[in-house]
Amino acid sequence: MQIRYLVALSLLPQLVQAEESPTTASQCVIEPPVPRIESQPGLSAVERQKIRIVSDKSNAEMGKQAVFSGDVVFSQGDRHIAADEAILDQATEQFDANGNLIFQDTVFTVTADSLQAQMRSNRATLTGAQYWLHGQQVHGDAEKLQITMNNNLILTNTNFTTCPPEDVSWLLEAEKIKINSDEEWGEIWNAKLRVADIPVFYIPYMTVPVSDKRKTGFLFPSFSTSTTNGFEINAPYYWNIAPEYDLTFTPSFMSERGLFTKTEFRYLAGEAQSGRLNFEYLGNDSMLSGSPNRYLYNWQHQGAIDKNWRVLANFTEVSDNNYFNDLKSDVNRATDNQLSRIGEVSYFERNWDFSTRVQDIKVLGEEEKPYQVMPQLNFNYRAASFWQNLDFGFNSELTNFAHQDSDINTATRLHMAPSITLPIHGPSGSLTSQLKLMQTNYWQQNNNPVQELDETVSRTIPQVRINGQINFERFTDYFDKNYRQTLEPQFQYLYVGYEDQRGIGIYDTALLQDDYFGLFRDRRFSGLDRISDTNQFTLGVTTRLFDDHNQEATKFSIGQIFYLEDSKVGFEDNLFEQNQSTSVLAAELDTRLTQDWYVGAAIQYDTDTSDNKKTEMTLDYRPEVNKLLQFSYRYVPDLLNSNTNDLANISQAGMRTAWPISDSLYLVGNWYYDLNEKRSIETYTGFQYESCCYAIRLSYHYRIKTNYDDNIGSAIVDNREQFESGVYLNLVIKGLGGSGPLGVSDMLNDGLFNYRKPLYLRN
């Protein structure tokens, strides 16, 4: 069981922009009790210096004092002062006002007991002030409010809140707040946070931004407690190194594990490139035997050198397989089990492109390591209508497959595939005919005596592909509603020549799934190590219903491949269990049953063996944008367990909901059940209350835990827990919440099974 508290602090919504929806933001704006005076754009510098005074009565003597009384209005540029009485000392250029005093400019409105202003130096002091920021929730009181000659703002014995005046749930009191208008930073001294009029937090000094400018300093700390980590405190420090560089260092002390530090360095490289470096380190983890050191480092970079060149890099390394399961990383989630290491440089022209790429993938929890691509060169050329409406294409690849183990076979592969295509397109349909010649050469090194491979291979395979589609359309009605219905039959003939490929190793190739769109592919394998011979014909049909607003109400597709000859490649080296006369019958449905109910389904059915190969189904109830109730089911047989190498069937049912109980209270929950094991595999329930000045979320999470074999030590207990559960409490005080208000979308995505629209529940 885990209980976590999070309180993130900053100063004002103006200071740290909160990500509120337009509806919430507009409802929570607290306007001053007097009408706002609009600014006057287009005034010249001379006009902005002019002073205008209007009053019911006035008594003035040239060069001395001028006394104004009765609805006095003083204006200078965008600044306006209204009062019962005002005195203008012409000799000292001092302006005093009192009685129902209102001060306004384009930024805020202030009511005060009195005002003293030096017009020559542009300084002003208001006592007994109440202020409101225009277009914001922020308002508060100040014993004294000073406007300096540099237009800086100094508030003494002040407070502020974003809560409505009738319900002040929290209040920040400070001895002094100074806001520098030039540097756009604020300083706060001796701040005290009150929640329900109870002091809960004290900060002797802090600086905060009043715009999007960055400044070096400590960010607000966070606290948590759990049975896994114990009591935890995080105190991030931000270093604004330069306009194009910054660094955030976050030390986290966990009473059960030790000191965990996270460092993130971000940079800009020119106008179109950016990247970041992450380093995380936990020394002497007390929760593991031997107290090993645990670490992560990551580098990400992407961007454009100019209009033609593109660069991409991503490298991640961790100390052990369970790093993401045990520690909260800023790089990957606990459900991620692959570390991708990629480096790529690409060059693009209108008719051709070239790229070079290196890639290494580390799979956590698996002893078998995949091949490394060191490197891969790609060159592609295309020429549309190069002769008699024929398109010419040329794709090529040169790849060197390396391996970290010296006893694994390695290879270099050169693949070239010129093609000629005749596309015919029209409103009634399309017909595309293509001839392709695939030439592949391998140079292989036999490092494994058990698996003898040919040292050199030259493979030449022709391919013929004809793909056509016809579009029919009619107007009809179903259930007393008018629709425009389409009928789109599609066919494909594919011929691929045969060549014995058992002398070629498997480097980057796997069997592809046969969903509906996969039936019209020109290959059965990913990668190029196996090109399956085939002589096949594919038939499929799609029908759609469009309503009066031309919105798609229903889409249904069904299709199947008919093999005219048995395939030798794949069957010879046991990649196929057996040859079949047909592929699976693949069907997909996405329909709106009523205005609010939606069904999504997909099935892959083996007509030869009468077996269900895969089934997915969702039933959604979505009456409004922020209301959801989804029921789902998925079945996948013979799925390989990478840890045990055993085949297992997945049969799971689930339910997910996001529903507003009231305008301020929201419920999000999900539940997934394993029908084979007869047990829950994930349960999540969260309640979120959000008002104009704070948001609070209470959630419960129970889920199956991914545990890999430890490669740096074992847990103190004999076995890691198979399931983990937690109760979480998150609190954001708006105006003091650096991360903004809590959102409902992240609750939908917080778990092993994220919310997916129908037909997107893929493995």
Give the C-alpha Rg: 34 Å
- pLDDT < 50 stretches: 1-26, 737-741, 756-763
The CATH superfamily of the domain at 16-34 and 67-211 bears the name Lipopolysaccharide (LPS) transport protein A like domain
Specify the CATH class of the domain at 16-34 and 67-211.
Mainly Beta
Query: What is the makeup of the main sheet?
Result: 27 strands, mixed, barrel
Report the portion of residues in β strands: over 45%
**How would you sum up the global shape?**
elongated
Amino- and carboxy-terminal Cα gap: 30 Å
Put simply, the count of helices is 4
CATH topology of the domain at 16-34 and 67-211: lipopolysaccharide transport protein A fold
Percentage of residues in helical conformation = under 10%
Helix-strand category: mainly beta
**Number of DSSP E strands:** 42
What CATH architecture label of the domain at 16-34 and 67-211 applies? Sandwich
Overall mean pLDDT: 83
Explained architecture:
The chain is 3% helix and 58% strand. It has 763 residues and is mainly β. Among the domains are: 16-34 and 67-211, lipopolysaccharide transport protein A fold (Sandwich); 228-366. The model is unreliable at 1-26, 737-741 and 756-763 (pLDDT under 50).
From the structure above, extract its key features:
about 775 residues; mainly beta; 27-stranded mixed beta barrel; twelve-stranded antiparallel beta sheet; elongated; disordered N terminus; disordered C terminus
